[in-house]
Queue: 2 jobs
Job 1
Amino acid sequence: MSNRPVPHARLAAEFLKDEPHRHFHDERLWDMRQKRDEQMHIMPEWQELREQASRLKEHTLAHLPQYLEQFEENARCNGIHVHWARDGAEHNRIVEKILKDHGHSSIIKSKSMITDECEMREYLEPKGVSVTETDLGERIQQLDNELPSHVVVPAVQKLTTDVAKTFARYYNTDPNIDDPHALAEAQRNAARPVLLSGDTGMTGGNFLVAETGSFVVCTNEGNADLSANLPNLHIATLGIERLVPRMADLGVFIRLLSRSALGSPITQYTTHFRRPKKGGEMHVILVDNGRSERLGMDDFWTSLKCIRCGACMNTCPVYRRSGGQSYGSVYSGPIGAIIDPTFNARKFSTLPFASTMNGSCTNVCPVKIDIHEQLYKWRRVLAERHEIPFVKREIMKMAGRLLAQPTMYRLAISGTEVALKTMPRFVLYNYLNPWGKHRELPHPVKETFHSWYKKNRLNRTKTQREETQA
Amino acid sequence: MKIGLFIPCYIDAFYPQTGIATLELLEKLGQEAEYPMDQTCCGQPMANSGCNRDAKETEALFIRNFSKYDVIVSPSGSCVHHIRDNFDAIEQTDEVRHVRKNTYELVEFIHDVLKVREFPWAEFPHKVGLHNSCATLRSLRTASMSELGEPFFSKPKTLLSAVKGISFAAPRRPDECCGFGGTYSVTEEAVSARMGLDKVTDHHDAGAEYIVSADTSCMMHQQGCAERNGVPIRFIHIAEILNGARA
C-alpha cells in the first residue's frame, strides 16, 4: 500500500469536471438523504431510537471482550466454527486455509466492506482462487478494479452508460444499451452460473448477536442469501465491533439501518444465520484489524459505533461533490475520514481536511457518532504529528504570530487593501491563487471598520468627553 | 451592561458596512458598545487547520482585549462558535471562561438577551433567501436543523419578520453548507466553489434577490462564486437590514 497522502482535493476537482456525473451523483445521494428525512418524520421516536442505539453500542464496546466470548461460546454450541483474525493478513490466511481444507477454489461472495479492508481478493486471486462479487454495485467495481465508492451503493459514482461499457467488455453485451433492467439482466445471467458452480459462499454481516451466537445479514438484492445458501460452505467475515448483546437489541438497529441508509423502512432481506445447514459448514471470522487499538483512543473510539449505513455520506456536501473514489479508501465520506487515519495516518492525513466541518453528518448518524468533532480532533492530531503539508504549517505559524500583534496586523490589513486596489488582475487571479480560480475576490473598500470607528466613534467620544468636561 | 464589539478581520477589511451596521443597531437598541482597537482575530484559522498551538497568542490577545466586558457581541457566527466551543489553546482561567461564556453572535444576542422583536426603522422591500451558516445552525443552534426533524424555529427569521416589506424565498436545500469552511475554501477550492455556486443558484432559482446571513465569511465566498458565474443575486448582512438598510 502506497503511503503517499491521498490527493483528495485534486481527485475531487477531476470528478467535478464531468457535468453529468457530478450532477447525477449529487442529486442521487441528496435524494437518499431526503428519503431518510421522510422516514424520520413519520417516526416520532426517531431521536429516542438514535439515543438508544448509541447507548447500546457504547455499552457493548465498553464490555467488548465479555460479549465477544459470549458470542463465541454460543456460536460454537450452534455448530459454527469461530476464528479470530488480528489483522487483514491473518484473516486472508484463515480463508485460504478453510478453502484448502475443503479443496475449494471459487468463492461467490456478497458485499462486505471488511473483506475489502483486508484486501482479500488481492491476496486470494494470485493463489488461484476465483472471487466473484454477487452484489451488483460491488461487481461493477470489481470488474473495473476499483474500490467501493460508498458503503451501501458501491458504484453510485457511475452512470448506466459507464456500466453498459464495463459489462460490454466482460459480458459481451451491447455497450450502447444502458437500460437499467437490461443491465441487471446481464448481471443476473452472468452471475447465475457462477452462483451455481461456486464451491464456497462468503458474506459479511451487519450484526453479531452475543446472546444467541448468531449473525444477521441485511441486503436488498438477495445475493447474500444465494451466496450463503447455495454452496455447502459458508464463511462470514465480521469486524469485532458488529456485536449487539441481545436479540431484543437488534430491533433498534434494524429500524434505523435502512431508513438511515436508503430511506426505506427495512432492507428486502434481513437474514439471521444461526447454524450451518444440514450437511454444510459455517465459519465466522472475527476481525480486529486495528479496532482494539481504536477502542483505546479516547477521542476516536466511538467511531466503532458505526453501523455502515452511509447516511453521513449521503448528506455530506463535500462527499456528494467529490465522489467516493477521491478518498482513496474502502471507507469514504465523513465516516471514512475519521476511521481511515487509524489504519494509516500519513496516507489518509488529507481526509479530515476534506470537510467544511458543517456538522450535517453528526446529525444524521443513527448511532450519534460526533463525526465532525472527530474530524476537528484528527486535524489537531495530524498537525501535531507533522502529517500536514509543510507550507500549511508555516503559513499557520506566520498567521498565528501576525494575529497576535495588533500593530503588525494593522499594517498587513492596510497592505491587503492596497493590494486589492492596485495589483493587476492577472496576479490576483493566476492559477497560484486558489481562491480566484472559480471565484471573484471581495471588493476593495475605502476604509476599514477600524479606521471608521477611530474617526466616527473614538474621536467623537473624545470630543464629546472634552465638551462635557468643559 | 458593558458590551465589547468583536469585528473579525474579514469584516474589518472587506465589509466595514457590516461592522458599522452592527454598532449602530446596538446603539439604536439602547446599548453602549465599545470596539477595542487592538483586536485582531479569534484564532479560528489556525485552530481549524489543526495548528491549535499557533492560535495560543492570538487567543491570549483576544482575552486581553475583551475580558473587561460583561458581554462580547460579534456579527459573525463562525467566530462566536470558535470562541464558545473550541477556544482552548490557552489555559482556561476564570477570565477565559468568562469571555467564552459571554460571547454572543449578534442575532442570538438581540433575540435571547435583549429579547427585542421590533425594528420600526427597518424596511426591506425585497425577497430574501436566508442563509444559516453551519456555525449558527448546528453549533450555536439559532435555527432548527432539518436533519433532526425538530419543530421549526429560526431566530434570524423571527427578527427579520419584523422588517417591513420583506419576503422570504424557499430554497430547495436550505441547510446545505455553502462550502466556505475557512481554509477549506482554498485547500479544496474546486469543491468549495462548486458548493458555493450550487448554493447561490438554489437561492436565485427560489426567487431571492438577496442572500441574507449572520455570517459574512459565507457570503464573501458566495458572492465570489455568484459574480464569477454571473448569478444575479446580491448579499447583505442581517445587521444591515435590521439597522434599516433599504437595499
Job 2
Amino acid sequence: MPATPLIAYAHVGKSFDDGRVVAVDDVSLDVAEGEFLAVVGGSGSGKTTLLRLANRLIEADRGRIAVEGEDVSRIDPILLRRRIGYVFQSGGLFPHLTVAGNIGITPKLLGWPQAEISARVDELLDLVRLDRAQHRDRLPHELSGGQRQRVGVARALAAKPRIVLMDEPFGALDPLTRDALGDDYRTLHRELGLTTVMITHDMTEALLLADRVAVMHGGRLLAQGTPADLSASTDAYVGELMRTPRRQAERLGALLPRDGAA
Amino acid sequence: MSHLPDYLGSHVRVSVSALALGLLISLPLAIVARNRPVLRTALLGLASIVQTVPGLALLALFYPLLLALAALTAAWLGFSFSAFGFLPAVLALALYSMLPVLRNTITGLSGVDPAVLEAAEGVGMTPRQSLTMVELPLALPVMMAGIRTAAVWVIGTATLSTPIGQTSLGNYIFAGLQTQNWVFVLFGCFAAAVLALVVDQLLALIENGLRNRSRIRTALGGLGIAALIAAMLVPAIARPHARYVVGAKTFTEQYVLSALIAQRLQAAELSATTRAGLGSNVIFDALASGDIDVYVDYSGTLWANQFHHTDIRPRAELLGELKATLAKQNITLFGELGFENAYALVMPRKGADEIGIHSVADLASRAATMSIAGDYEFFSRPEWAGIQKAYGLTFRAQRQMQPDFMYAAVASGEVDVIAGYTSDGLIAKYDLVTLADDRHAIPPYDAIVLLSPKRRDDEAFKAALRPLLGRIDIAEMREANLRASGNDASSSPDAVARWLWEKVGGK
C-alpha cells in the first residue's frame, strides 16, 4: 500500500476579483513524505497562490487540500500555520526583533518555555551555520541578504515542522550566496527528513535542488516529474523552460575545460 | 507666586487626565479604523473639524452641554454632577488631543510593510498577536510622535480652561491680562511652556527607550511622568478643602471684590478660596448649581443678559423684580455694595468741553463724523440698541476692543467715544468724562452680592458679608481699580482689597 502523500491537492481552484482572475485552475498534485518538490512558473502562473493554499494563507474556492492526511479546511488555520514552516521571499523578518526573537517566534506562539526556546535558537543558528555569539542579538537590518535568508530558514524550522514551504527563497541573492544556501538547505532537508515545496521562476535552480519539478502556467499544472521526465515532455511551454538550463549546460561544457581542477 | 503649586498642580491634573482619556478613546478607535477606509475618513474628518474650533470656544461649549446633561441625569437617574471646572475641561481637552493621536496611529499602522504582516500571519500569529507583537511595536515611533504632539497641545490649551472654572496656569494669564500685569501673563505662558517641554521630553525618553529596547530609559521616562503626577496630587490631597468658594469674572474689579469677600470670610474664620477668571456665561450657572457660593454681579447685566428683558425700569423697581426672579431659583440677592458699574459713553474731558458735549443727547448731531469703540459684547447688547434708539445715534465707525485698551485709545484720539465702565479707574487716570444719560436708555448696574441656593440660610456666612453692603462708593471703587491695574506688589488684588477694606471698613 503506497504511503499517503504529506500534501495532496485534489482538483483545487482559486480565483480573485469575483472570478475575473483565475489564479489556480483545477490542480491536482501530491507531495510524498521526504520529497523536495519545486514548483516552477512565470509571474502570474499561480505558483505562489498554490503554495499559500497549503497553509491557508489563501482559502481555496474549489477542490480539497490535505496536509498529513487531514483536510486543511477542518483545521484551525492558526494551528496549521504553526506546524508548517514557511520561508518568505527575501526573509520577511520582523525588523524590530533580534535574530533570536525572529527564530524563536513560532515556539513562543506555541508556548514553549523560554529556556527551551533559547536552546532551540542556538541549535538552529548552528544548523543554518550562523555564529551564535555574533548573530543572536543582531537586528535584521544589520545582516547581509544571505544571513537574513538563513535566519528565515531557521525561523521556518524552529517549531520542528515536518513540512517546509518556500516562496522564492533564494531569488534576491547573489549567485554565490544562492548556491551555498541552496546546498545547505538541501542538506538540511535530507538530514531532518523534511518535506519541502519550493516556489521558483528559475528552472535551473529547480532542477539542481529538487527531486521533482512541477510546472505551472496560467493557473494550470502543465507537467510534473523528475528532470528526466520533464526532458521528455512534449508540451511546448515545458520544452521552452527546459531549453534554457540545457543550453546553459552545453555552453558551459564547451567553455570550461573538462579536466580542469576547478 | 504662592499660588504656583496649586495652579501647576491643577494644570497637570487636568492635562494628564485629558490626555489619558483622549488616548483611551483614540487608540482603540484608530486600531479599529485602520482597515476600514470609510470609518477612517469619517474619524479623521471629525477630529479635524474639532481641531478647527478655537480652544476657548470648545471649552466654553462643554459647560452648557454638561449642564444640560447634568439636569437630565438628575431628572431621570436621580444623580447630578458638577458641570463646572474639571469635567468640561477634561472632556474638551480630550477631544482636542484626538486628532494627532488618531492620525499618527492610523498612519503608523498602515505604514507597516505588507511583507511583514504576511510573515506574521505565516508564522502562525492570530490577528491580535500580529497587532500587539508586530504592528504596534513597528508603528510606535509614529504613534509616540502623535502622543507627544497631543500632550503639548493639551498642556498649552489647558491654560484656556480658567474661564470655565478649572484652575490652571491660565489663571496667571487671565489675571495678568485683566490687570495689565504683563509679568503675570509672561509667567503663566512660561510655566505652561516649561511644563509642556518637560512632559514632551519625558515622553521622548520613553519612546527612545522602547525603540532601543533600553528598559532603563523607558523606566526613567515612566518614573518621571509618574513622579510628576504624584507630585501634583499631593497638594490636592494635603490642602484643606475651603468651605466657601468666591467667584469672579474676568476683569479687575471682580478680582478685587472677590479677594475682598474672601478676606472678610477668613476674618470671620470661615475658610474661603477664590475662583477667578470665570466667563460671564459660566459664573451665574456655577452659582445656581452651587459650584461657587458667592459672587458680585451687576443688576443691569442680569436683567438684560440672564433674564433677557429689553425694557428698562427705574433702579429700585428693577432690583425688586430681580430679587423676586432670583428667589425663584433659590438664589439670594443679598444686597448692593453701594456703587454702580454701568456702561457709559466716555470722551476725553478736554475734547468734550471744546465742542460742547456734556450728555449723550449732545452727541446726536455729531455722531455721523465720529467713531466709537466698545468691548467685545457691547454692540450686541440690548443697551446699545436702547441708546441708539433713544438718542438716534449713528456713528461713522464702530470697533471692538479689549476693555483695558479702550481708555488709552480714546485718550489718544484713536477713537472719539468709547462705551466704558463707570467704575473704571482709568476714567480718572486719563482725565475722561462720562456723558450723562438723561433719557435713561442705559439700565442701572448696581453691584450686587449673590449667594448660592445652599447658602440661603447660612447665617455665619451672611454675617461675615453684611459689613460690605452699601459701603463702597463709586470714587473708592474707581481708585481701587486704578490701584489694581499697576504692576507692583501693592497692586495685587489681595493688597488692593486690604486697602479698600481699610478705607470702607470703618464707615
